Amino acid sequence: MKHSVDYFFSRRNFLKTGWGALGGLAGSLLASSAWAQALGMKTPRQTLGPFFPDEGDEVHEIRENLDFRLPISEANDNDLTHIKGHEGTAEGQVIHLEGKVLFRWQGDAKPQPGAVIILWNAAASGRYNHRGDREATRFRHPETGQWVERTHDEHFQYWGRCITDQEGRYSFKTVVPGFYPVDIENGWFRPPHLHFMVTAPGIPQLVTQLYFKGEAVPNNAFIQKLNARDLILRDPALTREQQDSLIVEYRPSEKDPGVLIGNYDFMLSF
Question: Does residue 14 contact residue 7 with C-beta atoms inside 8 Å?
């Protein structure tokens, strides 16, 4: 299954309408994802995007599990900061995201064991391991004017898989991805974000994206400006509460120095 670059950039033109004033929202208070989850809010959907890990689309082949009956998107573990057989580790700020997959039925939210979660994200440079990501690999930072190089990280895993346990719990270790331009002329840069596909038997598949905030997150103030202007996060089809529920706050881990930890519960429903 391939997803063309045109799919993503045609959506850009659709979402432009009426959202030019979003820059003024950068300083507004964002509702926490924990607050939304406490209310039992269904996890909002977001676009798959063009860089889902497909067979043959990767620039550097990464397959930790050599069972070729698995699609490449499911062939890796939940630690994206290290590739089995490599001595090096990924560049960038390491994060640990954990939580549960819940299924809401008739008002009750219950843990969903055996759910398959696929995570994929760009490297710290903002580059995906995908042959479709070949535009604007070098651009000027919109605030500093310095050149930004979007390079591949040979020690970053780029995608991984986790299966929830009997309590519906999952965890991933990855890095804060870099931002990258979509429409430089109009000042649209995608903020750091993580892509997810959540699949559980008998339940509609969820595809979404999660975003970043937190004083410990590198360049947090700049990231909040990008969040406020992003035409995918700020999809007008979603309420403001739904949009903000996708922004996860990260804090320094008490167990792992130098690691930031965040929590998010995926809420599935029909």
Answer: no
